[in-house]
Amino acid sequence: xxxxxxxxxxxxxxxxxxxxxxxxxxxxxxxxxxxxxxxxxxxxxxxxxxxxxxxxxxxxxxxxxxxxxxxxxxxxxxxxxxxxxxxxxxxxxxxxxxxxxxxxxxxxxxxxxxxxxxxxxxxxxxxxxxxxxxxxxxxxxxxxxxxxxxxxxxxxxxxxxxxxxxxxxxxxxxxxxxxxxxxxxxxxxxxxxxxxxxxxxxxxxxxxxx
Length: 210
Hints:
Blueprint: H1 5-23, H2 27-48, H3 52-60, E1 69-77, E2 83-88, E3 94-96, E4 99-101, H4 108-120, E5 122-134, E6 148-160, E7 168-174, H5 190-201, E8 208-209
Parallel strand pairs: 1-6, 5-8
Antiparallel strand pairs: 1-4, 2-3, 2-7, 5-6
Helix pairs in contact: 1-2, 2-3
Organism: Acetobacter lambici
Cofactor: Mg(2+)
InterPro entries: NUDIX_hydrolase-like_dom_sf (IPR015797), NUDIX_hydrolase_dom (IPR000086), UDP-X_N (IPR059176)
């Protein structure tokens, strides 16, 4: 499923404006980049139904060279080859694999292990990188305002005690034929889950990307 053109255009114009405002010194150039940022906000507000002020405030908080945001997710399997999943409180308790934004001062794998422990109570050793995917090309719903790169790791259980958190309302292991239908589609897709099972079953598979 492709994203709407208005979102692609607004995202690209916002990135140009953000990067321009980072490096431009001439006041007239800065004024033009500010106009571009305002234009991107109008396009996104028109397409999304959000208020222009809300979008402008969101864009104004972005600084530095515009790059994709980094999300980490981890496929953790038990001795019965079942996948660890959690109900995501922020998405009406729909199911996903543990994960979230990568944290500053942590490597991507450290962030992934941290998310698993925070959301499930389990500790894991990150063993391999299975997928590096551009969110916009994966059919996730709803679409996001900013470009996001998703890293999918595999993790091996090392200990811990199952426990929910402020982010999760339930924790369960699922066999491949038991995966729930009410997935948090902004975070995970059935295809991505299938690929995690495939990488777990065949460690010779190379990392998938794009």
